[in-house]
Request: fold
Amino acid sequence: MLVRILPRRYTQISKFMSEQIDMFLQSKTMEQILPREFPNDRVLTDGLSKPIYDLIDRGGKRWRPAFCFVIAELFQQNPVDLYEIAASIELIHNGTLIVDDIEDNRQISYFYILSDVRRGKQCVHLIYGVDVAVNAANYIYFQPLQFLINSKQYDKNKKFKIQQSFLEFITSVHVGQAKDIIWHKNPDQNITYQDYYDMAAQKTGGLANLAAHLSCITLNKEKYSKHLGNFAAQIGVAFQIQDDILNLVGDEFKKTKGYLGEDIHEGKLSLIVIHSLNRERNKRLLHLLKKKTQDQNEIQEAINILKQTDSIRFAQEYSKLLIEQAWEKIDKVMGFNQKQILKEFAQYLIQRNI
Reply:
């Protein structure tokens, strides 16, 4: 049975994450990997740094770097030792968001604006152009690895392991994204819950998995890499499900975006949609997904269908089950206090409202 976290504990993990992220950002470690300004080179500043930091400076949940600091806490290590890893993960994540917005074909309609916003501002490619955005995002996939390989913090053996993990999980992220793209290009196909889990574990959980592996390598705790990596991937799926729920019914999401149902417009096969379609092959819902409608009344109609099939509640329960299963899998390899920290972190991610 899933144990509920007391509000006091929830506040503690929230405070821990906030404090650790603030100190991490103040360290400017990301700027060691990607300078905000290239000395005497305006072209590289405009073409690489500006687009990336435009998105980073807007904020974000930053739960992946926070997970690095949670791992440091698990082993009573200094979080500063993982700043380079956390910075690498956060930079790559922002690169994936830039590319994701382009792949979702987010653009400004002259009649109605939808899906052109990321963190309260226009998507990066709409500001700087698709060519600049794609190139900057691709650059930031590779530059962190080059930085880590050249860092004096790791010996040759660690650098080799870092490179292996890096290539494995960055590839995995792209495999998951490929599935997601093909599915929402043609939503009229029978996708199972396991199919969805595998996709989200790769796409959303891939970088968290990488964060766990690189953190364990750095802290000489490699025997925990697989366990913590699998835990990270599983809570990554739960995180994605919560995102999908908030996209449809989140009040704070609506305040930020100005509307709900962005995923309906993009025709995405979220777990919520898959459940609804599996219960009843609703031709109207399929039509709206294929149409990629921008009409808010039609989007609301699709949301109502998902409510009628109880698919949002199903996704909420599925997300909670994933957290419980992830915690149970870690039960035999972690001490009590370590498990509590992990559980509080996981619960924090699915109890958020934005």
Observations:
- Strands lie at 107-108, 113-114, 117-118, 121-122.
- The two ends are 26 Å apart (CA to CA).
- Residues 1-8, 108-114 have pLDDT under 50 and may be disordered.
